[in-house]
Design goal:
Low-confidence stretches: 13-89
Strand content: under 5%
Distance between the termini: 25 Å
Structural class: mainly alpha
Strand order of the largest sheet: 1-2
Length: 230
């Protein structure tokens, strides 16, 4: 348990049978060339027909069990973000994809009690790191320091992945590659001018994604973490 916590903190970073009833073949009636008998049917045969059990219905397959939702506790509702400018609607943040709930729940499993002290500490450290990194990114962009932008993108990508902030992780990965003059989506190299042109809108987008993630995480801990006893 302690080794896992240490590694994460330093990174901050699975033959139905068909029961059809076979009808009983009626006993063949002997052919009699004589006129048919007017005698009433045997009471025994009539009773047998009346007491014959009805065919069993075909068994139905057991329905598959319902899947358990990913989060161990209900996720808090997130206020709607401010509307994106008309010329950047394609950069609107998808709030449902900002947090990777599977990764976040794995971090919660490291907590020893309902205070969630360990994971909360990771989240608070992440908030500080992200804020500082954004300032450094802006400065590196002004200086057109692509190598620095690539390094900062790699750093924030890792700490975001450790906490399950998947949207920031993905955008920082693009910044990392563009800073290294590489467009991995198309498998082509970039000029410095092209790289800066691609990074500029990503710096705005990653900050919006971070704001949504920070608000979501703070709301979750506010609603689910039990204050530690004095």
């Amino acid at each position: 348990m302690s080794q896992t916590k240490t590694a994460v903190a330093e990174h901050v970073k699975s033959p139905e049978r068909e029961l059809s009833a076979k009808p009983r073949s009626p006993s063949p009636q002997p052919h009699d060339s004589r006129a048919p008998s007017l005698a009433p049917p045997s009471p025994k045969s009539s009773a047998a027909r009346l007491t014959s059990p009805a065919p069993e219905p075909t068994s139905r397959a057991t329905p598959a069990p319902e899947r358990t939702p990913a989060p161990s506790t209900p996720a808090p509702s997130t206020p709607a973000p401010a509307s994106a400018p008309a010329d950047s609607q394609s950069d609107a943040v998808d709030e449902e994809k900002v947090i990777d709930l599977e990764t976040f729940n794995q971090i919660l499993d490291l907590d020893e009690d309902d205070t969630h002290d360990f994971s909360l500490g990771m989240a608070e450290a992440y908030f500080t790191q992200a804020s500082t990194t954004f300032v450094d990114m802006d400065q590196a962009f002004e200086k057109k320091d692509l190598a620095k932008l690539s390094s900062l993108g790699h750093f924030l990508k890792g700490s975001s992945a450790a906490l399950g902030v998947s949207a920031v992780q993905a955008t920082c990965e693009h910044i990392q590659h563009y800073g290294a003059l590489r467009d991995e989506e198309h498998g082509t190299d970039l000029t410095a001018e092209d790289a800066l042109a691609k990074i500029a809108p990503l710096l705005k987008r990653v900050k919006r994604e971070y704001e949504v993630a920070e608000r979501w995480l703070k709301n979750w801990y506010k609603q689910n973490a039990t204050p530690a006893e004095a």
